[in-house]
Amino acid sequence: MIATPTSLKLIPRPIEATLGSDSLSIAQPMAISYPDAFAFEGEALRELLSKAGAKLSAGKGGNVTVSLVQDRDELGKLGPEGYSLKIDKAGIEIHAATAAGAYYAVQSIRQMLPVSVETGDNTNFAELPHVKIVDRPKFKWRGMMFDVSRHFFSVDEIKGLLDLLALHKMNIFHWHLVDDGGWRIEIKAYPELTAKGAWRTKKDFVWDYLDIEFPGPGTDKPIYGGFYTQTEVVDIVAYAAQRHITVVPEIEMPGHSLAAICSYPELACTAESAKLFTAEVGMPFPNVFCAGKEASFKFLETVLDEMMAIFPSKYIHVGGDEVFKVLWKNCEFCQKRMEEEGLTDVDELQSYFIRRIEKHLDSMGRILIGWDEILQGGLAPNATVMSWRGTEGGIEAARAGHDVVMSPYSHCYFDFGYDKTPTEHVLMFEPIPEDLNPEEAKHILGGQANLWTEYVPDLATVQRMTLPRLASMAEILWAGKPDLEDFSARLTPYRERLRTMGLSQNGEDELEF
Ligand code: ACM
Ligand code: ZN
What is the model's pLDDT at position 123? Predict the structure, then answer.
């Protein structure tokens, strides 16, 4: 294991770094150049260096140069996200095969500059250490899931979260857009979803759903909620793409669908089961789409079509977790479907449901991804599995030749308190289970942190639940398990940076973790 040189306190740590003894003062005239393909990255670097006191002119001339070079021949060595970075007396030189690699090089330089760059204070004349770095990520899926259904967060708050992911060299934003707590995305074919389903009677969303109603605005009832227009979604997806983050949208089905079913009750098994949940109705949760009615599939395919038009992601997440199938057992439509399709139990009916949706996504050139319950009753042929109940689902899927994203709640659930999942514990996350052989292990795309928001009502809480644990997740997914003492030393300036950025973090005053 290569520990980070002591004065190079990067999170995640670079794979190879050689620190020189001298440093480069950036308070001298420097010329900056970059190709069109790296324009966003070049400008980001110019802005950063300027904030640290540099005076940059455009072009390749001058004694000291800052250059970003696109080097496709390096693809074999650096991969699609890697970079090399050299800082010496001649200046700063970045090589990358793609803009993503150049972007990550800039994020590394950011962490070498004084934290004052985060506030735009350009009175600080910085020195950068002479260094040679060759860096590339271990995993290609470095994600975070964020639930905006149980509590709603604004476009600017989402962009702030994307900025945070970018700082950590994370590249997937899994956006949990709909659930029992509210429907959060405009669907033009089904306006009731946001006219009604985005607005509930209580701000606090608790698991028992007591007395939750979705009356929509314009009634005399208090309402809480919100949704993203498709125009806003397009803006967020583009913002993420500039930062080399893919937004993977999730539309939950067939369970966790209370907000949809309250908006369109005909999609539930019976009028009775579509009734809003009250203490009297009791279990099971009336939150599943009827798997017998064709209307459910027409609805979901139409929703997915509108989604695919604005989300370029190859992966479309369809949920699939925690389906209360008891309702299907008592539904004449679901029973008829099972008879017609020769399905022996409701697990197979769930499998039928997901396979049908997969066929539709397949026909549009996309890949279905779902929580590990989609294994129940038989996995759809091309599905990717997100393993959350443990690693067993992921192991089973990888052995069957399916791709897997690991996100076991034991290490990856940021809604759990720090008493249960401390920052140090996240560092014990091992995305590739020992049980897998090297061929099977190739199916593990990576991992992700999940932040469910039942008990996360505002941005400060989002930040505190996420920080500093996101540092551990980024470290594991980019570089692998660290030396703990080394990681701890890197956490100190990292925490200072977060503080300077005005972000809340857990254990604000602790230098150790
Ligand atoms: C989940 O936590 N229900 C995926
Ligand atoms: Zn039914």
Answer: 62
Q: Is 179 a catalytic residue?
A: yes
Residue 8 and residue 129 in contact, taking contact as beta carbons nearer than 8 Å = yes
| Distance from the alpha carbon of residue 387 to the mean position of ligand 1, in angstroms | 9
Mutate to test the pocket of ligand 1, among 248, 452, 453, 456 (most ligand atoms within 8 A of CB): 452
Q: What is the pLDDT of residue 124?
A: 67
Residue burial 135-147, b: 16+ Cβ < 10 Å; e: rest: bbbebebbbbbbb
SS3 477: helix
Residues 167 and 105: their CA atoms lie apart, in Å, by 11
pLDDT at 8: 86
- Quick check: pTM over 0.90? yes
Cα→Cα distances 1→14, 313, 450, Å: 11, 34, 28
127 given a catalytic annotation: no
Please, what are the averages of pLDDT over each run of 10 residues along the chain (513 residues)? 59 96 92 98 96 88 91 94 97 98 98 90 80 98 97 98 98 97 97 96 70 83 94 98 98 94 91 55 72 98 98 98 90 97 97 98 98 96 98 98 98 97 97 97 98 96 98 98 95 95 85 46
The two three-digit tokens of residue 426, written as one number: 């996240």
Which of the following is catalytic: 71, 235, 322, 362? 322
- Whether 81 sits among the annotated catalytic residues: the reply is no
**Exposed/middle/buried for 68, CB within 10 Å: 0-12, 13-18, 19+?**
buried
> Rounded to the nearest 10 degrees, how much is the dihedral formed by the CA atoms of 149, 258, 411, 111?
-20
Helix ranges (H only) for 69-219 are: 75-78, 99-112, 155-167, 192-195
Residues in contact with ligand 1 (CB, 6 Å cut-off)? 321-322, 371, 388
Q: Which of 322, 414, 448 to mutate to test the pocket of ligand 1 (most atoms within 8 A of CB)?
A: 322
